[in-house]
Each structure stands twice: as structure tokens, then as C-alpha cells.
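Review form for a predicted model. The reviewer records the input and the model, then writes brief findings.
Reviewer: anonymous (R2)
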Amino acid sequence: MDVTDRRDPGRRPPDGYLSGPDAPVLATARALAKVDDAVAVVLVEGISDQIALETAAVCRGRDLEAERVVVVPIGGAHAIRRVLTRLGPPADRLRVAGLCDLREEELFRRGIAARIGPAATRTDMENLGFYVCVDDLEDELIRAVGVADVEALFAAHGDLGSFRSLQSQPAWRGRPPEAQMRRFLGSGAHRKLRYARLLVEAAVGRDALPRPLDALLAAV
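Model under review:
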């Protein structure tokens, strides 16, 4: 743990979650190992999505582990068909749902159609328990929390100076603050993981949890 981490635990990934180069593969394997005892499985693209969904559940007073709901970060949308194949044919005992970004919707749609059922439209996908973030989960959360409160979170966790530096870069100067924030969250080793929890908690505090997260929780 470095000096910054000791000063502010919020600068580390949330406890219990993996980070580092091997994290995506390890996180997928760890989650899939729990599937045999599950009654519902939620497929998400990455670990930050897993953190966001599980944080939202806690904020809503739910214990997904006790409910035998397993959130599986699949390591990118390209893996959706492979993971669905690993889960086997749809069965009454196992509810399968999921979450993806807008740009990955078609990959999810094709995987769902091949392994679960017809998913020609967004409505079809939602009827099967799969929801799409516009443009991605970070964008949904930034809009839910609001620019001013996101900046307040950056300040509270020692990141506002770094964010201001990004804003001053020629490539990002004058761009909409929401776009700057998305870029900022996507940079740094752990930033997206750390703020997945913080942004969801802030959104729930405003009673503004993004619809894809809210609807997905209701589906499982």
C-alpha cells in the first residue's frame, strides 16, 4: 500500500474486488465458480460494473449473496456467447440477466439470441432481463449525480487537481464536462473501480439510480 492509499482508503479498489492485469480473468473464474449454487446470474462487462451493481443492491438493502444471485464480470462483451454457453441452456432454476454499454449492444443481442431467445429489439432484450447503458455506465452515473456533485466527489477523494489537469489538456480543453469526466474515470489504474461505488452511492442518495441498474436489480 502506498502513502496515498494509507491516507485515503477510497483511493484503492473497494475491498473484496480484484485489480491488476490478471483481474478480469480471475474475477470471471471466481464468479463462475459460484454459479452452480445460484438461482440467478447477472452478466456484466467488467469489474467496475460488478462493483456498481453490487453497491446498488447494498444501498437498496439487498444481500445478493444470501439471495444466491451471482454477478459475473465476463471480461468484455465479446465473451457473452462463451459465458452463456458455459451456463448451459436456459432452465427454470437459473435466471440469467445482464448489463452492457450501448456500443456493445449488438454483441449482447447476438449472444442472447443464440443462447436464450429472440432479442431483435431493445424491448426484447429487456423482457429477457438484459439492459443497455447509454452511452456506458459511467455516463449514466455522471448524469444521475450531476457535474457539480461529481466534482465534489473528486475533491473529497483528492482527485480534483488531476481532473483539472486533464481539463487543461489541448485534446480535452473546452469539451463538455461529462465527456471529460468519463475520460478521467477511464484513466488511472484503479479510478473506474473506486468511483463505481462512490458514484452509485451518490446516485442512490439523490434517489436517482440510473434506470438500467434499477431495472436490472428489479429483474433479479
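Findings: Strands lie at 40-44, 69-73, 95-101, 130-133.
Further findings: Residues 14 and 46 are 14 Å apart (CA to CA).
Recommendation: see findings above.
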